[in-house]
Amino acid sequence: MNALRNKVQLIGHLGNEPEIKNFDGGKKLANFTLATNETYKNDKGEKVEETQWHRLVAWGKTAEIIEKYVTKGKEIAIEGKLTHRTYEDKNGEKRYVTEVVVSDLLLLGKP
Length: 111
Prior knowledge:
Layout: E1 8-14, E2 19-22, E3 28-41, E4 47-59, H1 60-69, E5 75-88, E6 94-107
Parallel strand pairs: 4-6
Antiparallel strand pairs: 1-3, 1-5, 2-3, 3-4, 5-6
């Protein structure tokens, strides 16, 4: 059961173009958002669609694949782990971020 402790699997569409950062030594970082949709019927029997937005980051080879093949609107499946971090913004205020660090990526839909 250790493999299931912090595992996230999502299928959705990219909400924006991935932001790629290059670091010394050739290491890459990709930041992007993923929208997942859920459809259900409410108490009145009406169809309701709900969208959740997720912040994702990918490093190394996964970031390179994202840079080459993934664009806004593209449907992908990811697997990764949930992380939390804090930072101070330019006004000195503490900000909290929850994001998924992507370890595996599957391109779905039409090329």
